[in-house]
Automatic annotation (TrEMBL), chain A:
Claim: Cell membrane is one of the keywords in the record: yes
Keywords: Cell membrane, Membrane, Transmembrane, Transmembrane helix, Transport
PANTHER family: ABC TRANSPORTER PERMEASE PROTEIN MG189-RELATED, ABC TRANSPORTER PERMEASE PROTEIN MG189-RELATED-RELATED
InterPro entries: MetI-like, MetI-like_sf
UniProt source species: Nonomuraea endophytica
Protein name, entry field: Raffinose/stachyose/melibiose transport system permease protein
Length: 272, 284
């Protein structure tokens, strides 16, 4: 009985919290402009699916945004996870004072907000401004700290016997890294990777300052440009169609991997 | 043996160190200089000008308001997010099939970009939108000074609550069952158990979540860009919003000064908070 009340309350809460927002987006992205302007939750009186999504794909720069988002998200996530794991190994095992000082700086980089304006200045000085490479390097530099911090704690919690045994068996350091360390760090790297993907895929602030022109625009940037193009009165049907398409790739990955994502985030993150 | 050789560790950490130094630390240090420099699109030469950027921003009535808006926004965001997430975590703590379904559903908003979240709630909260028609009102939630800031903070909290819930669940599940059982044997009711056992034991997760949500919200930009753009008037014009405007108008020095103010707020918030929460964690 108590459980019944609890789940009834949770369901009541989930309706405005999750279901209505998603429904609003989906159903209004199917309506023609005039009908969507009412922002109602009813089914479309006239369906305009093909037109709306056609416009978003055609004029909204969606496909280019998708390619650009993939082009920056994949390298950032791979670089942060691999370089972060390698650095965490060094920070967790070495007793060098210099490395411990560097580890402290990595920790500060988690807490302090990135300075975006000098970043633009710096990228201009390096002739990297406006393009994807500068963005990838900046995001990698700003997101490494958290992964290093989580993974170093993990490395320290493990005895080094396994690594030593592998070394005695004649494995080179890179071999030990790939065969012993990466499998050991898998839970924490998975959690770090998940948070990173959500973070980078949805990043708007860095993209706004660092990526210029629609040729480099990632999905959030292309959504903003598209929505701002009709600023006076938002074309809600088109904006929502764009929102849906922008969110869809992440939701699709989540639906496939949700069991591991949820378990990883609730169990893997705080251990070590 | 090879593995114990000290110098040999450096190459493993070096790429990460270089990237963080060049793309995080160097801009951070440059910002300290730019904040106190004259630098505009009209005069590209960067020269030291002391506190002039700050005094100009104060004269234009921009700085004090932006600091107030940012701080209030961060506190609101932190309060809403942690209240919702802790409640959800307490309800969904046990790992069962039905709880997993709810956890999964409540995690969905986390996947949505803050920008998209802004557009979604702008639609829901429009004067003729779904929320008003349910409540029988015609209130411009984002257009009225009384509610705009609260609503914008709410949207940010909505977006992140799913992730914070999972951190709380992890914290709750790390509490030893024996501790709760012995409290029950000693005659503690549910409320006493929560206050005396669960809440103190939850300190690490609480420290983490309060710090993360406060510090994150001090850098607020995306949701505001998608909803109010800083309005009505200047009621949601947070520091980063003014920074972007100054940047857009070519006042790069002033923009840096605003970025530096965010950094100062983060330090002023994070240092005492982590210290205080850690101390409470130890004394329980």
């Amino acid at each position: 009985m108590k459980a019944l009340v609890k789940y009834a309350a949770l369901t009541l809460f989930a309706i405005p919290w999750v279901i209505v927002p998603i429904w609003l987006v989906v159903v209004n992205s199917f309506k023609p402009a005039g009908e969507a302007a009412e922002l109602g939750l009813g089914l479309p009186r006239t369906w305009a699916i093909a037109e709306n999504y056609g416009i978003v794909l055609d004029r909204g720069g969606y496909l280019m945004g998708l390619v650009n988002s993939l082009k920056v998200t994949v390298p950032i996530v791979v670089a942060v996870v691999l370089l972060g794991a390698a650095a965490a190994w060094a920070f967790g095992r070495s007793r060098s004072r210099w490395l411990q000082a560097a580890y402290f700086v990595m920790g500060l980089s988690i807490l302090l907000p990135p300075s975006i304006i000098p970043t633009v200045y710096l990228l201009r000085a390096l002739s990297l401004d406006g393009g994807s490479l500068g963005y990838v390097l900046t995001m990698t530099g700003c997101r490494l700290g958290i992964v290093i911090f989580l993974a170093t704690g993990f490395v320290r919690a493990f005895p080094r016997d396994l690594e030593d045994a592998a070394a005695i068996d004649g494995a080179s350091r890179p071999q030990v890294f790939v065969r012993v360390l990466l499998p050991l760090l898998r839970p924490v790297l998975f959690v770090g990777g998940v948070i990173l993907i959500i973070n980078v895929w949805n990043d708007f602030f860095f993209a706004l300052f660092l990526l210029q022109g629609s040729a480099n625009a990632t999905l959030p940037l292309s959504l903003f440009q598209f929505a701002s193009g009709t600023l006076q009165s938002l074309n809600w049907n088109l904006v929502f169609a764009h929102v849906l398409l922008t969110t869809l790739p992440l939701v699709a990955v989540y639906v496939v991997a949700q069991k591991r994502v949820l378990a990883g985030l609730t169990e893997g993150a705080l251990k070590g | 043996m090879v593995m114990r050789n000290r110098a040999a560790w450096l190459p493993w950490a070096l790429p990460a160190i270089v990237l963080v130094m060049v793309f995080f630390v160097a801009p951070f240090l440059l910002n300290v200089r730019f904040a106190f420099s004259s630098w505009t699109s009209f005069r590209a030469e960067i020269t030291w000008n002391g506190l002039e950027n700050f005094s100009t921003l104060i004269d234009q009535d921009l700085l004090a308001n932006a600091v107030t808006v940012t701080v209030v926004y961060a506190i609101l965001c932190m309060a809403i997010q942690n209240t919702v997430s802790l409640s959800l975590a307490l309800a969904l703590q046990r790992t069962s099939r039905i709880n997993t379904i709810f956890r999964s559903a409540f995690f969905l908003p986390t996947l949505i970009s803050p920008l998209a979240a802004g557009y979604i709630w702008r639609g829901l909260l429009a004067p003729d939108g779904a929320v008003n028609s349910f409540l029988g009102l015609e209130w411009a939630w984002l257009g009225e000074p009384a509610t705009a800031l609260v609503v914008v903070a709410f949207i940010d909290a909505w977006k992140w609550s799913g992730l914070i819930t999972l951190v709380y669940i992890a914290g709750l599940n790390s509490i030893p069952k024996s501790l709760l059982e012995s409290a029950t044997v000693d005659g503690a009711g549910p409320w006493t158990r929560f206050r005396r056992v669960v809440f103190p034991m939850l300190a690490p997760a609480l420290t983490f979540n309060v710090a993360v949500t406060l510090v994150g919200a001090l850098s607020a930009y995306d949701v505001i860009a998608a909803t109010t753009g800083g309005g009505p008037g200047d009621h949601t014009r947070a520091l980063n919003v003014v920074m972007r405007q100054q940047w857009g108008q070519g006042f790069f020095g002033s923009a840096s000064a605003l970025g530096f103010t965010v950094t100062l707020l983060v330090i002023a918030t994070a240092v005492p908070l982590v210290w205080w929460l850690r101390r409470r964690e130890v004394t329980g």
